[in-house]
Write a structure and sequence with these properties.
globular, alpha+beta
């Protein structure tokens, strides 16, 4: 996920920013699976904050966008 690392690296320590399925080139179902892991365990250099934005696809509420805070000072 080089694209994810590039996005996180550009942020300052403590900055809040949004990650989305579209931004990372993932379909919403894949992003939902990864985002749930980030919510539970944190991501590479960031922690999930706030309430995830969910989208209804085939009757399921899937995470399409997630607000995170950079925790790694680099």
């Amino acid at each position: 996920m080089a694209k994810l690392e590039d996005i996180v690296k550009r942020q300052k320590h403590g900055a809040q920013f949004v990650l989305s399925a579209q931004m990372l080139g993932m379909d919403v179902a894949t992003f939902d699976t990864v985002a749930q892991t980030w919510i539970e365990r944190g991501g590479p250099g960031f922690a999930a904050t706030g309430v995830p934005f969910r989208k209804v696809i085939d009757g399921e509420f899937l995470i399409a966008r997630l607000t995170v805070t950079k925790t790694d000072p680099d």
